[in-house]
């Protein structure tokens, strides 16, 4: 029994180290502020503290090389991976790192096959490789799809935040148009108001459009295609159709902003209703368990007496 517990502890500690290596924790706000302050007062201090160990650099280089090879392999077979690229673009991740993670996690699960076999042997389940191999294969399949689920969840959350900011951005553009600005100037002035990551993405797209000679609405449409925001594509199409009529643009932008806010409110109300229903079900289950707890002694007394 002691050997089985030790083997289980070793397996759990190995999985913990693997998860910490593949998904390192992000530094908190206090550590970020401390690093900024140290960089301000001591230019060499931040550079010295930000250096990684040679082992970490070597592992990162191998992971990057594997990711590049996998990306080239996907491109050679014509796999577009459009939804994954859009999710990676809005989360600020690279395709190479994502592909490397998808390969390394299942491989790590298979590497633990001898450890699982030894664990089953200590439990007295025999030394057959069938059951441990199936267990490792199941874990490999779960680990293969785990990065996709995590990426989808994070991308959906960031898209929701982006849509919320787009509604405010449309109101700002409408107010700038009412003040007598042209459409390009109104778009750039509205994007220069905030410093959040959504406004930075919009401002960068508009600045790049000015450099490359594209129209601002084409840049917004390209940004919508890149990160998977349908509202930006619709906005680009509307601006293309009514680019010469300032009053029509103001009405269209105001109506779009109002519709986005109403849809967001309906989604929030729907989520609140779902959570209320889940809480009601939890309360009913709790009441049922409490009633069973009260009835059980009397029921057992009746059963014993009969």
Automatic annotation (TrEMBL):
Chief place of localization: membrane
Superkingdom of origin: Bacteria
This protein's GO CC annotations: plasma membrane
Location of the protein in the cell: Cell membrane
UniProt cross-references to InterPro entries, sorted A to Z: T2SS_GspF_dom
Keywords per UniProt: Cell membrane, Membrane, Transmembrane, Transmembrane helix
Record domain Type II secretion system protein GspF: where: 169-297
Membrane-spanning residues: 6-23, 103-123, 129-149, 280-299
Topology relative to the membrane: Multi-pass membrane protein
Pfam families, sorted: T2SSF
Name the record gives this protein: Type II secretion system protein
The species this protein was found in: Actinomadura harenae
Organism ancestry: Bacteria, Bacillati, Actinomycetota, Actinomycetes, Streptosporangiales
